[in-house]
Amino acid sequence: MRLPPSIRKLPIGRIAHGLCSIASGAMAEREPQPISVEQMYANGPLTELQIDELLDESLDPRGPDFLFEVASDLGVDASSRVLDIGSGNGRHVIELARRFRCRTTGVEFVWDNLSSGFPDLEDLRANEPEVGGMIGLAQGSITALPFRDGTFDLVWSRDMLIHIAYLRDALAECRRVLRPGGAMVVFQMFATPWLEPGDAERLWPALAAVEANTDPDRFEEIVGEAGLEVERREELRSEWREFLEESGPGKTSRQLLHVARLLRDEERFRELLGDVDYRASVADRLWGVYQMIGKLSPRVFVLKPRA
């Protein structure tokens, strides 16, 4: 495909940056000018086929392994002690121990997750006893962690702070259990200006999310109030979702299909799932779709105790 000079001279990274800025809401304050029918159907610099070919080119998105790369950059190794807060089904506890051969503890508040027995962990202890022996689990709350001051080199928090009503207290508690020189890695979802009030109303209550925690400016204010400071910040936008589409699973495409079915046959699915699970199922699938179209944008933070 031969692109016109104005496009050829622009590095793909700059094209990508411009598109990402729009998706993240960076241009939300600019009022869009109306496009006339004549403009819409006029011949532009590229044909529709050329536009499709351009957009079929990957922007080389980072995938979920990026979080482990961040931990590696912080020097996590076999001598480290790592705390995974909100460990859920134990997946990240297992991967941290396996990758870094470090002592890893998972803390989970929801009893159903603990009582499920973590089948993956049971398999790990049977098949990889050395790794399984590095892992411990405990029930507890992020606002009252059952550990002494300065116990851990790294606190890992993926996609769970959105549920915490007392965020300042939670972050202060994470700071308390960090050793001097330790760090906290946070993956957190945030709303962008593209998320409409109706979207938020549909999403946050059904996911037991604290809407105030989805404001990135407020989040960073509370980080400071908790005695922490931001050492590193990465906005991922749609990268992980693009990666999962391009690498094979097609997770977001499947979520889009699922939410279409849930909405088109609402009465049937409400009867089958019950109201709570129906609303949660819709919201959970919109969670992925909204990331792909710029209504939600995850960020990764490295937080360190403020001197």
Tell me about this structure.
The protein is α/β, with parallel strands linked by helices. It folds into two domains: 169 residues, Vaccinia Virus protein VP39 (Rossmann fold), CATH 3.40.50.150; 52 residues, no CATH class. Strands 3-2-1-4-5-7-6 form a seven-stranded mixed sheet, with helices on both faces. Helix 10 links the parallel strand 4 and strand 5. It is globular, with a radius of gyration of 22 Å. The N terminus is likely disordered.
* Terminal-residue CA separation: 55 Å
What is the class of the largest domain in the CATH system?
Answer: Alpha Beta
CATH architecture of the largest domain: 3-Layer(aba) Sandwich
Overall strand count: 7
- Portion of residues in beta strands equals 15-25%
> What is the overall shape?
globular
* Radius of gyration using CA atoms only: 22 Å
